[in-house]
Amino acid sequence: MTTNLGIDNAMYGAVALNDTTRAAVATTTLSPRFYTTDFAAMDAMSVEPVRAEWDALIAELASDLNRKHFTRDKGLGWDLDIEGLSPALRAEFLDFLVSSLTAEFSGCVLYAEMKKRGKNPDLQALFKYMSRDEARHAGFINDCLRDFGVQVDMGFLVKAKKYTYFSPKFILYATYLSEKIGYARYITIFRHLEAHPERRFHPIFKWFEEWCNDEYRHGEALALLMRADPGLLSGLNLLWVRFFQVAVFSTMFLRDHRRPEMHAALGLEPEAYGMAVFRITSEISKQVFPLLVDVEAPAFLEGLRAMQRLDVELTAARAGGGAANWARARLIQARMAKAFVSLLLLPAKKNPLPASTRLAPSW
Predict the structure, then answer these.
(1) What are phi and psi of 203, to 5 degrees?
(2) pTM: predicted TM-score of the whole model, two decimal places
(3) Which of 55, 234, 310, 351 has most Cβ atoms within 10 angstroms of its Cβ?
(4) Which helix (H) or strand (E) holds 348?
C-alpha cells in the first residue's frame, strides 16, 4: 500500500529525483520499511500502571538533551577526505547512510502520524518527542550525503514509499527492538572507534554516542507501553516476541555481511560485531521480554551463518538473470525461510521481569 501520511514535505526540502532517492524508495526483504497501524487502538493505550516511570521519562524527553548535538560546529571536527575512500568503500558507506536515513525517517513519519491522529495526551507527548528526534537524525544524515554530491528527497519518500501495515502490538515489538538494536549498533561502533581512532574514516561516527542515547530513550518508552499491558507479554503473544527478536537479529546479520568493505575499514568483523550487538540488545531486552532468544547457543550462530551463505547465493542468482536463475532464486528463498524457521524453533530462555522497567545505558 502506498499512501501520503500528511507529513509537511516543505520542511524537508526537495531535490531532483536521483539514484539515492530511488534506493531509499525501493522495498526489498532487507531494506528499512515504512509502517502504518491502527492509530485509534494505539491511542487507546493507557500508561497508568507505569505512571511514575512514564512521567520521569517524558520529562527527560521534554528536556531535549540533544537539541544542539546535530550540528557540524559542535567541536567534534568534520575532517573528511572523500577522495581517500575506495570506490567499493564509498558505495557501501553510501548504502549504509541511505539505509540508516530511511530507517530514521520511517520512525519520524510513523511517530508524527501517531501524534497527529491521537487524542491521548500521554501518547501525543511521547510521539511528538520521538518524531522530533528521528527527524533530526534523518536530516543530519542527509546533510552528510551532500558531501558526496547526493541527497535523499524525503518529501518524495513520504509519498512514494510503500507502507506496511502492522497491528499496534507488532509496532511495539518491532520498534522497541529497532530502537534498542540501533543503540547497541551505534554504541558498539563508537566504543570501538574510541579505542581505534585511526579507523574512523568518516566524522559522522563521532556523533554516535549521544545519537544512540536518543534511540535508547525511545526504546525505554516503548518498553513502558508494553509493561503497562501484561497481555502483550504473555500467552500466544510470546510467540510474536520470539519471532520479532529472530527477525530483527537475522536481518541485521545479513545486511551487515553485505558491507564487507565498510566493516573492514572500521576494523570490525561482521560476525563478531553482530554477536556483540545481539548480546547487548538481549541484555537490555530483559527489562521487557519474558522470553529471550538464546544468542549464546551454538545453533543460533550456525543458523545465522546458514542464512548468510544462502543470501550470497541469492544475490548471485538475482544478478544472473534469466528464467533458470529466477527459479534458482525462488528455491534459495525457500531454503532461507526454512533456516529462519529453524532459528525460531530453538529453545528460548525464560526471563523474570524486573520490578522497574527503566534501565540505564551502561555500555
Answers:
(1) -70, -20
(2) 0.90
(3) 310
(4) strand 348-350
Would you say the C-alpha torsion 159, 161, 165, 170 has a positive or negative sign?
Answer: negative
> In whole angstroms, how far apart are CA 48 and each of 10, 44, 139?
37, 12, 34
> CA 97, 265, 187, 23: dihedral to nearest 10 degrees?
20
pLDDT at 11 > cutoff 80: no
- pLDDT score for 158: 78
Selection from 171, 155, 139 nearest residue 35 by Cα: 171
Angle at 296 between CA 288 and CA 298, to 5 degrees: 140
Which pLDDT tens digit goes with each residue over 42-63? 999 999 999 999 999 999 999 9
Provide the 10 A C-beta neighbour count for residue 149. Answer: 9
Q: CA 228, CA 324: separation in Å to the nearest integer?
A: 52
pLDDT confidence of residue 75:
64
- Integer angstrom CA distances of residue 175 from 21, 46, 84, 106: 23, 18, 36, 10
Other Cβ atoms closer than 10 A to 38: 14
- CA–CA distance, 48 with 46 (Å, rounded to integer): 6
Which residues have a Cβ under 8 Å from the Cβ of 163 and sit 6 or more positions away?
1, 2, 3, 5, 33, 34, 35, 36
Q: Which cell goes with 270?
A: 561482521
Contacts of 216 (CB under 8 A, 6+ apart): 179, 180, 183, 361
CA distances 51 to 46, 58, 216, 268, 357, Å, are 9, 10, 19, 41, 12
Query: Using alpha carbons only, how large is the chain's radius of gyration in Å?
Result: 20
What is the C-alpha to C-alpha distance for residues 201 and 261, in angstroms, rounded to an integer?
12
Identity of residue 231: G
294-321 burial, b at 16+ Cβ within 10 Å, e below that, comes to ebeeeebbebbebbbebbeebeebeeee
For the chain, the residue count is: 363
**Cell triple for 175:** 520498534
**β-strands 291-293, 348-350: how paired?**
antiparallel
Spatial contact of 1 and 163, defined as CB atoms under 8 Å apart = yes
